[in-house]
Amino acid sequence: MAGPGVLLVLLGAVVGIVLLVLLVMYVVVPIFKGFGWLVRHVFAFIGGEIRDALRLIGALVTAVVFAFLVIANVVIGRWSAAAHFGRAIQAEMGAGGSCIYRILVGHPARFLCLNSLVDGLERRLPEVVAASPTADTPSRRTGKFEGYVIVGSLPGGGSGGKLYVAEPDEIRRAAFARQGIEDVDQVVIKSFSLQDGSSLPQIVRESRALDAAKKLGLVLDHELTPERFYYVMRFVPGEPLSLVTQKLHARAPAEGLTNAQLHEALGYLASLLGTLDRYHRGGLWHKDVKPDNIIVHGREAHLVDFGLLTPIRSAMTLTTHGTEYFRDPELVRMALRGVKVHQVDGAKFDVYAAGAVLYAVVENSFPAHGALSQISRRCPEAVRWIVRRSMADYDKRYPTAAAMLDDIRFVAAAPDPFAVRPADLPSMRGVEGDAQQAIRHEEEELVFAGAVAASHSRHARPDAAPAFTPTPPAPPQRRLRPRLRVTNWWSGEYVVSPDEPVRAAGTPRPRPPQRPARPRVQRAPAQQQLASARARVEAARTRAAKRIGARPPASAPARFNNGINPGVAVALFLFLAACVGLAAIIIGYAANKRTFAWASGVADAVPARFPHRPSLRCRRSPRLRRHPTRVLVCSS
Amino acid sequence: MPFVRTMSGGILGDNRPFPETRRAKPGTIGRPAVPRGVSAARARASARSRTVLSSMTTSFVARLRANDQAAWFELWETFGPVVRAQLARWGGGRIGHETVRDLSQETLAALSDSIDRYDPARGARFSTWLLAIAKHVLGDEMDRRMAMKRGGGRTAASLDEAWMAGSSAIGADDAYEAAVFGAKVEAAIRQVQKECDFTDFSIYRMRVLDGTSGKDVAAAIGVSEPTVSRRLAKVRDALRRRIMEAVETYSFTEDERAEPRRNGLDLDPNKADDALFDEAVAEIYHRQMDLRRLDEQAAR
Q1: What's the rounded Cα separation, in Å, for the pair A549 and A533?
Q2: Which pLDDT tens digit goes with each residue over B11-45?
Q3: Cross-chain residue pair A365–B223, CB shorter than 8 Å
Q4: How large is the ipTM?
Q5: Considering only CB atoms, which chain B residues are within 8 Å of A319?
């Protein structure tokens, strides 16, 4: 009979032990952990306060010592040393200010777990201050820019130059119009001055690709003097792609961009790749493609900052300039080996950077792992493929920006980008997209034009007999050769295109028909030439004005806004409100003080010739309350 | 900032000298010290069984000694994030990210400079060596900042040889050792990515690293599933070889060379369980991704 009782007791004991263990695990341990966290938190606060207080005292003492050193150096005439110690005082003051902030705001906020509250002050404020533009006008040492009126400045970036926004005057605009550059409303002037701290290597680097950049229309004007160097570019309004990407992801759900946002992002990349393709065909590679150097305006993305623009055929040695995460590691390896620029295809490094930009836009972070970087956000498989292919090994990535552009356009044009397989991309099917076909046609036209120009005679006389041209031998019977186009690189399937005639080896290319020679033109007198040039300029201005007038008013280009922006307006409003409030407080206090003095007695107002007059208390006579004038009855 | 080393050994843009290193005693490298009373042959045999620099390590060391910039960059690419993470952890928020990057460059440059002082007889691991140099560089930086000499009045100490006795004295924890091993595997993956065909590696990446099913990979690439398996095996074999090479190159002790087996990466193709191998590679890859992501966030 005792058996069931013992069993119950045992069972109860087991259950009790289990409950006790659970209680310890889920209640007691967390309580102790919380207590431990609290103790650590309090000690961290106290330790931080003491540490910063000691640092503040140390900074003050050190600043005083530096002050003596400054005075001593000034007395003995060592101005540079005095300036050096003066800068040290500034640094100590800065450190002291930081300590005061931490003692009064930082540590208490963190103690109360209000970290987010101070995040703006500690992180965002220094970032914005550091990125603030320089002075709106160039210094007196730098001098003015002839033909341009400065309207503002932009943050300089890391190249050592200063950026100003300017408006060209009429003469400059006419000069641009003569060069075929129309609608130049505002420009950006990038200036390097030895007086302002720029160095010769910076100037040399920036000026390297200037001629090629001018031919592509990227640089409108430039000037090089013994003291300074500047060049002028068209001002592109808009926001950097880095900021646009942050805004996109701020509006997007947690898993990633929506279909519409992906489409927008692919549009920006297509615009970027079109620009890069144009540069590469013009013989340049940008070398610093990154989201901060891409300005988005409307649906277009414009590449700016030509500081590292390099001719593809340059004989210089490769350098490691660029921005980490967007710079191909292979470029660094080649530069360390001393490879020359013309020995590699620089365009491929721009393709790598474009892939890194696409990664940054989709993932909202930098490709920290290079080509192995993983996309964790919502992204079509085809876009992942494009990113990987563009950031693949040098020999395996897209051969040109146009090839990558074709794939981007294919995905962007698909009704559902998530339904596009990597196998469907033009690069995988071995098909030339529109961009590559356009290049091929352009190259063929250039070859034909080159052949025409080579056979054209410039200075033939009108009465001279036509130049002797040897009759080409009769072409042999044309042999036809089928043209094969591979449709599947993996299985080797191909289709046969219609036959095209080919030349047999050794036969000369058929000559295009000769144009008649131009008759020699008799030059007009100089005065007449000047008058006709002025008339042409005037006509060009009139045409430009008509075009501007004919344009719908809604499409007026955005201008650089250096005036009052909302932030400035808010700051001014708050300042005025504070001034008004302070004034009201002062006036109110003064008025109250006067009333108080008048109501409580005139002891303070008693003249000095009655020093011993007892203090009086005055009141209104109750008998004379109905009297219109107040009568004070005073008694001691 | 470009990190091209100048002829004097400093880093471009940074004129601070490297930590002072003492020249090794002649005959130290590759030859253990022979205690008295022990025959030379027996000493050589015991040393061989303990620690022998492999031929790959020796050739890598030779490249570093010859100031091969590519070898230095390889070190930077492979172990830079590991060193930065460790320096940032030690710094405790007192040093900014730019300083951490500078210090990591100094650490790797000092590593290549102090190669002559390595004594394999002491049994020190490569990871310990790296950690000791990083600690010394950080200490030098903190001393410079506090504007006081270490040891109260004495000149700044040179790299102490005490770390060669064992890794526990330096404070190399499991997380650090795992990060160093992960960096070696990552270097192998990068090497395989370079040498393999793009589509083959993409198949491996989608199947193993991204966890996509074989059927989906085949559909995406436009090939059959057996083709996917065949190409996967090809890349896997290449990866095994490269992991073995990377571990051989960056390992000084037998214990380090045995790390792949301890981490589920059996490099013997006859005994390998391919699924286990792939799973281990994927886990290491994702761990390295997290490390790099933290490094990139700190940079921003």
Answers
A1: 24
A2: 333 333 333 333 334 443 333 344 455 455 555 54
A3: no
A4: 0.75
A5: 2
